[in-house]
Design goal:
Pfam families: EF-hand_13, EF-hand_7. The chain is mainly alpha-helical. The chain has helices at residues 2-9, 13-21, 35-44, 58-73, 83-87, 91-100, 113-126, 136-140, 149-155, 171-182, 187-197, 207-223, 231-242, 252-256, 261-269, 271-278, 295-310, 317-344, and strands spanning 28-29, 81-82. The protein contains 18 helices and 2 strands. It starts with a helix and ends with a helix.
Length: 345
């Protein structure tokens, strides 16, 4: 009966994938539907063999992979991946690569262990009380307090989060935040920050909303004795840069059509990156795309190198993997205790 229904309802790889992962019960996939698939990758992929002795740590890697899948595929922000969203993505092709590529870090989409390592280290660094959740004060310390308090408040307002736990971000939400913060050209990132800046939810970033976020940037620069640009001048620059279809009103489609969204968003809520942009040609961002890597992939590669260097480095990839394993092993017992306690509550 199962295979009869599979044949009757599925006409391509995408529909078959959804049918199999959902056990034929749904026409879409939710977070837990991916658990068996990614657990099998952890259990069987040669690039993750060093994790075999730490089964208690598998859940973090699995959560990261699935969160990245939803980040890239779930265009509707519904928490349910449709057959069409699978069909429009590279997920199935990436899964096929797992069969032939023994180096898990060579698969940059979704499954890279190095990317996971960077994301989780950032999370652990901010989570001061190690309750596995990020508070507003935790997030405020990200990248040396680079983000404005107003944009952080918007993140915690529910504009871009699925479910706050006692007013805190879950690890899944943090994955979405970090990728969005480091790759503001990604369509999901543009949607993420647009939702944050669109205070009244009318589908437009108005001049008032831009001024609201820019005010805090100006105050920060004044405290640092940095010359500031009057808002009207800044506004003219931003409108010229994005060139919205409707004068004075920036819509999501305007930002997605622009190649300079990184500069636009950083201007309004990331002072450190804003100042970095100010010191170079505004259009140099267009020339930064080397080796076909995304902004997040470049960020993860640089961060990983620094993290490994801090721990003494390694001569081979296998050695680096073992270093990562022993670094995490130090915290495994404590993490397991906290994770188990949170499940009992």
């Amino acid at each position: 009966m199962y295979f009869f229904r599979l044949k009757q309802n599925c006409f391509d790889e995408a529909s078959s994938f959804v049918f199999i992962c959902s056990k034929g019960k749904k026409s879409f996939l939710e977070f837990d539907d991916f658990l068996p698939l990614v657990q099998d990758v952890v259990d069987s992929h040669p690039g993750l063999t060093f994790l075999q002795d730490a089964p208690e740590f598998h859940s973090r890697y699995i959560q990261t992979v699935i969160s990245r899948i939803f980040y890239c595929l779930n265009r509707s922000w519904s928490g349910k991946i449709s057959v069409t969203e699978v069909r429009l993505s590279n997920l199935l092709q990436t899964i096929e690569k797992l069969e032939v590529q023994d180096d898990i870090n060579a698969i940059l989409d979704y499954f890279s262990y190095e990317h996971f390592y960077v994301i989780y280290c950032k999370f652990w660094e901010l989570d001061q009380d190690h309750d596995l959740y990020i508070s507003e004060s935790d997030l405020a310390r990200h990248n040396n307090h680079a983000l404005s308090s107003r944009i952080i408040s918007r993140i915690f307002s529910g504009a871009v989060t699925r479910q706050l736990v006692n007013g805190k971000l879950s690890y899944k939400d943090f994955v979405w935040f970090l990728i969005s913060e480091e790759d503001k050209r990604h369509p999901r990132s543009i949607e993420y920050w647009f939702r944050c800046m669109d205070l009244d939810g009318d589908g437009v970033i108005s001049m008032y909303e831009m001024e609201y976020f820019y005010e805090e940037q100006v105050k920060k620069m004044e405290l640092l004795d940095i010359e500031t640009l009057p808002f009207q001048d800044c506004l003219c620059q931003m409108l010229d840069m994005i060139n919205p279809a409707e004068p004075g009103k920036i819509r999501l489609k305007d930002l997605k059509a622009s190649s300079l969204t990184t500069i636009f968003f950083d201007t309004f809520f990331n002072l450190e990156k804003y100042l970095r942009h100010e010191q170079k040609d505004p259009f140099s961002a267009l020339r930064d795309e080397d080796n076909g890597l995304s902004d997040f992939e470049r960020f993860a590669a640089e961060e990983y190198e620094m993290l490994v260097a801090e721990e003494g480095g390694g001569e081979t990839q296998q050695t680096e993997g073992l270093i990562m394993f022993f670094i995490f092993k130090i915290n495994i017992l404590f993490l397991t205790f906290i994770f188990d306690a949170s499940n009992e509550q």
